[in-house]
C-alpha cells in the first residue's frame, strides 16, 4: 500500500493532533511507557497522510506528551531519565519563587543562543505553537502549548548541558502546587500580555537579534513572576 499524499489536506494535521490527543487522554488512554502505533498505522486509522501524523507527533513531543527512540518507536509520556529520583528530590526542596529565579537565570540565555543558532523553519514552528496557545480549547491545552514554546526555544539553543538543566527545571514546574498557582493567576489580560511578549521573543529570534531575544525573554518571565508570586522585595 502506498503512503498518502505528501502534502496533508487542509486541517488534517489538526485532525491528527486532536485524535492522537484523545488516544493519550481519553477514557481508554494509553499508560506512560506504552508504544504508539506506527505513523503508517495512525495515518490509516485517522484517515490522514503520514506527514500530517508526523507533524502532530512533533507537536506532542514538544509538549512532553510522547518521546521517540530511533529504531524502537514512539512512546507515551516523557522520556525516562536516570536521574529522575534526584529531580523528585529537588521538587520537594524548592518552591515557586526559586523556580522563577532559576528561569530568569537560565531562559534568557537560552533565548540568546536560540537567536544565534536558529535554523530554517524554527521561527515558523514557534509561530505555529503560538497559534496553538491562542486557539487552545481549554486551559490545560494552552498551558501545554506554552510549555512547548519555551521548550522549543531551549532546544534551539543547541547546548546539551543547558538543555538538561532546563529539563530539570521543567520537571519541577510540573508540581501540582506550581500548576495551581499558575492557573489561579491566569486572566484574559495576562494571557494577552503573554501573547504579545511571546511574539516579541519569536520576532527577535527570527531576526537573529540575540540581545533582543534575551531581553524579551527576561521581560516575559519577570511579568510571569510578578503575576504568579508577586514582585520581589
Topology overview:
Elements: H1 12-25, H2 39-46, H3 50-62, E1 66-69, E2 73-76, H4 84-93, H5 96-117, H6 122-135, H7 139-156, H8 160-173, H9 176-185, H10 188-206, H11 210-228
Antiparallel strand pairs: 1-2
Helix pairs in contact: 1-3, 2-3, 4-8, 5-7, 5-8, 5-10, 5-11, 6-7, 6-10, 7-8, 10-11
Question: Would you mind describing this structure in some detail?
Answer:
By secondary structure, the protein is mainly α. The protein folds into two domains: 12-76, Winged helix-like DNA-binding domain superfamily/Winged helix DNA-binding domain (Arc Repressor Mutant, subunit A), CATH 1.10.10; 84-228, Four Helix Bundle (Hemerythrin (Met), subunit A), CATH 1.20.120. It contains eleven helices and two strands. Strands 1-2 form a two-stranded antiparallel ribbon. Strand 1 and strand 2 (73-76) form a beta hairpin. Helix 4 packs across helix 8 and helix 10 (188-206) runs antiparallel to helix 11. It is globular and about 55 Å long.
Strand numbers in spatial order across the main sheet: 1-2
Q: CATH topology of the largest domain, what is it called?
A: Four Helix Bundle (Hemerythrin (Met), subunit A)
* Count of DSSP strands: 2
CATH superfamily of the largest domain: GntR ligand-binding domain-like
The main β sheet shows up as:
2 strands, antiparallel
The residue fraction in helices comes out at 55-70%
Number of domain modules: 2
Q: Which class do the helix and strand fractions yield?
A: mainly alpha
**Number of helical regions:** 11
Percent of sequence in beta strands: under 5%
Order of helices and strands: HHHEEHHHHHHHH
Unreliable sequence segments: 1-10
Q: What is the straight-line distance between the termini?
A: 65 Å
Classified by CATH, the class of the largest domain is: Mainly Alpha
